[in-house]
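We now fix the convention by which a protein and its fold are recorded. These numbers are not coordinates but entries in a learned vocabulary of local backbone shapes. A record is reproduced here so that you can trace the correspondence yourselves:
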Amino acid sequence: MNGVASAAMRHTADYRLNFGVELPRLKTLADEYGHSHELAQALWKEPVRECRIMATMIEPHDEMCGELADIWADDIHTAELAQVASINLFQYMNDAADKALQWIAADDTMHQLCGLCTAYHLLRRDCLDERRQQEVADQAQSLASSTDLSVRRVANNPRTDQ
């Protein structure tokens, strides 16, 4: 546990429990467990920051279908988790491009954030055709003045480290 980080996040994150463990340490722990759909599902059900983040790291990419991704995205309540889930998992789904565009067009800001982050990672990996690239650009432009700071920041700054 990182007490300082945990205390700082307590006021900004919507988790029942938060240990403040840094992402590199969680990645090391996840690597020790390897990929496991059952364990990832069990971890995701826990409203604990570190459990949710580790779930995105150990869920096998080929097990994450669009329907399951929707269930997980519905349960994302922080920008950090939206970004982590997108980089660790959502960008590798078979239907990632379609799902990203669907989420970007949603009314919910966390879905929009998941969609933008996923789409930007797909762009970075050159996984979007020209039509989809243009659609992402158009959607990002429309979200560039979002009232949600996280969505606005990502829409205006499509860095690949989101």
In short: Residues 77-162 form one domain.
